[in-house]
Amino acid sequence: MNRRSPTPPRPGEPAVRFVDVTHRYGRHRALDGMSLELEQGQTVALLGPNGAGKSTTIGLLLGLLEAQAGTVEVLGTSPRQAVAAGRVGAMLQTGAGSGLPPGVRVDATLRLVRRLYRRPAPFDVTVERSGIGRLLDRQTQRLSGGQAQSVRFALAIAGDPDLVFLDEPTAAMDVAGQRAFWEMIRHFSREGRTVVFATHHLQEADETADRVVVLNHGRVTADGPGAVLKAAVQAHRVRFWCPRPPVGVLDGLEGVTDVAVRGQRVDLASLDADATVRDLVHRRIEFSSLEVTGAALEDAFVALTSRHHERGESA
Ligand SMILES: Nc1ncnc2c1ncn2[C@@H]1O[C@H](COP(=O)(O)OP(=O)(O)OP(=O)(O)O)[C@@H](O)[C@H]1O
């Protein structure tokens, strides 16, 4: 392990602290009193639909934007100081193209970026961490989408940061590229570093993050491991076939939060599938082909964001 951080992170110091942060673009409130604290060493997904405030959050954390109200701290200091000290790296969205200078070799690009830092990680360490050894003599414009992202990641960590922000890092990658990318991130985070990434991909957040922070309308609407988020909403779907579904009774079954009946097919959303099935039997409701499945993170996400939306509309 190579730890060369100029100011090593203090144990217990949050990697990121947002207290009641508001950010507006003109009259549009992109972040609306957002509070959030992230511990060091975690991989955290910022998950949310388009316009939820993910990129704005990352912009504030990098000191590219200034909050109009509230406090933003990164590794115990201001975002700008943390960035200037080389403690923070970032991979932002590029729009069109790879975001790399064309007509330059990968190794030359990395050497150039290393010169921007007072204490960069050794060249070979960065190459190994980002897995770009085989790409060093390639021209940047000849890289595939996935290869370009690996090179951009190498540039993001060239300063040996304790904390890295990635804004939708796998957007341009195929499935194999995504897998390789997250494997690399896992190695990096095992060294005790913090990784915060924005994504719309529910499965990606669930599979790769220790913690999933769901944003919607500029606020945190849910926060926890993917598994906990799933449990927090309609935890299970209970499906069965019934010759004459007793519609009025199904609503009252233990644990049931939602009922959908199509002909003889009944779909129940339940917070406690065991209790629901026991109650089905107890009430002598005739059923066959019983299926119980866990809710996908997708369900949790839709439920969590639509709940917030309802609150927002009634506010
Ligand atoms: N420069 C800007 N000027 C005006 N409005 C902006 C600007 N940047 C973002 N917004 C608005 O602020 C809100 C939050 O945008 P942000 O880019 O942070 O969301 P996001 O969650 O990253 O979305 P996406 O997933 O689409 O990238 C959106 O409603 C967006 O339209």
Automatic annotation (TrEMBL):
Pfam families membership: ABC_tran
Tagged with keyword ATP-binding: yes
Main location (coarse class): membrane
Membrane disposition: Peripheral membrane protein
Protein name as it appears in the record: ATP-binding cassette domain-containing protein
Record Gene3D superfamilies: P-loop containing nucleotide triphosphate hydrolases
Highest taxon, organism lineage: Bacteria
SMART domains referenced in this protein's UniProt entry, alphabetically: AAA
Family matches, as CDD domains: ABC_DR_subfamily_A
Alphabetical keyword list: Antibiotic resistance, ATP-binding, Nucleotide-binding, Transport
Gene Ontology MF annotations: ATP binding
Locations listed in the record: Cell membrane
Domain ABC transporter stretches: 16-242
Naturally occurring in which organism (per UniProt): Acidiferrimicrobium australe
SUPFAM superfamilies hit by this protein: P-loop containing nucleoside triphosphate hydrolases (SSF52540)
